[in-house]
Structures are given as structure tokens and as C-alpha cells.
Automatic annotation (TrEMBL):
Classification via SMART domains: Flavin_Reduct
InterPro entries xref list: Flavin_Rdtase-like_dom, NADH-dep_flavin_reductase, Split_barrel_FMN-bd
GO process terms (BP): pyrimidine nucleobase catabolic process
Ranges where the Flavin reductase like domain occurs: 22-166
Alphabetical UniProt keywords: Oxidoreductase
Domain of life: Bacteria
Name by which UniProt lists this protein: Flavin reductase family protein
Record-linked Gene3D superfamilies: Electron Transport, Fmn-binding Protein, Chain A (2.30.110.10)
Length: 169
């Protein structure tokens, strides 16, 4: 491999290279929720993407080793919640392994299709899962929007350099 002047020291592809590069990529923070007969599950996601407006589709990634995966792998509907900068602790709770994610102080209710809907978020959607695409040790979930509410107030929460941050002007 030949170095290109002004571009530093190129590295061969590796998990560490990918993680290092994406630490520079600021991402919006969402919480994905679902429910089965044993109760609600959820996790913090920074991989949320809009896929299509017609029909309204979105995607997110989830590791097959994640505690929420067994429920997400079979759920017909999922909830998508866009977090505000006032929700750093909520994002951390849903990112922490072994946390009681739906216990106090998390506020939530059963929403459309029985999906857990979190309180005080900037926006939420309930979506019907249309595909789960294998991608390494993850799955990319494609989901079609069924219903939602974009009327929350505040500024978005971002994830950058391994930390939750507010948006600066």
C-alpha cells in the first residue's frame, strides 16, 4: 500500500479501523423498542436511516448477540424513538447491558400494535418489519412506517467520539 501525501498513514481494513473512522461520524440517537409475551425490550441505536419516502421505509442495525435480538428477530412491529439532548441518561440506560430499561425513571406506555412508546421523545414511529437482512454479526432491519408523532420539542441528541452530545450551532 502506498501512502498518499497529506492523507496520513493508511491502514488495511479491520474492525478497529472501522470503529476509529466512525468515531468521527456524528449520528442521531434513537431507541428501538418491541414487545413479546414476556415484556418489552429496547436498545439504543445510532444506525437509524431513512430508506424510502414511498413507501415510508427505514432501517437500523442490531447485533445478533444483543439481548433485544431474540424479540426483534420475531417482532411484527417495532417502535422507533428519536431522542432529544435532554435524554442522555435514557440513551445510556438503553445502551447498558443488563439495565432495567423500562423501570423507573423510564416513562413509557403501550402504543399502537402493543409497541412500547417512550415518553418525552422528539418523535416516535411504530413500524411493521418487512425484512431482516444478514450483515456480518448484525442484521439490518427494514421496517415500514405505520403511525407516528413528530411533535416533540427540543434539540436532537447526537453520538460522537463515544459520547452522547447536544447539537451546537
Amino acid at each position: 500500500m502506498t501512502a498518499t501525501p497529506g492523507l496520513g498513514s493508511p491502514q488495511l481494513a479491520s474492525p478497529d479501523l472501522l470503529r476509529s473512522v466512525f468515531r468521527h461520524h456524528a449520528a442521531g440517537v434513537a431507541v428501538i423498542t418491541a414487545r413479546n409475551g414476556t415484556g418489552p425490550v429496547g436498545f439504543t441505536a445510532t444506525s437509524l436511516s431513512s430508506v424510502s419516502a414511498e413507501p415510508p421505509l427505514l432501517s437500523f442495525g442490531i447485533g445478533t448477540g444483543a439481548s433485544s435480538w431474540p424479540v426483534i428477530s420475531e417482532a411484527e412491529h417495532i417502535g422507533v424513538h428519536i431522542l432529544g439532548e435532554h435524554q442522555r441518561e435514557l440513551a445510556a440506560t438503553f445502551a447498558r447491558s443488563g439495565a432495567d430499561r423500562f423501570g423507573a425513571p423510564t416513562g413509557w406506555r403501550s402504543g399502537p400494535e402493543g409497541v412500547p412508546v417512550l415518553d418525552d421523545v422528539l418523535a416516535w414511529l411504530v413500524c411493521r418489519v418487512v425484512a431482516r437482512v444478514p450483515a456480518g454479526e448484525h442484521r439490518i432491519v427494514l421496517a415500514e412506517v405505520v403511525v407516528g408523532d413528530p411533535s416533540g420539542a427540543g434539540r436532537p441528541l447526537l453520538y460522537h467520539q463515544g459520547r452522547f452530545n447536544g447539537l451546537r450551532d
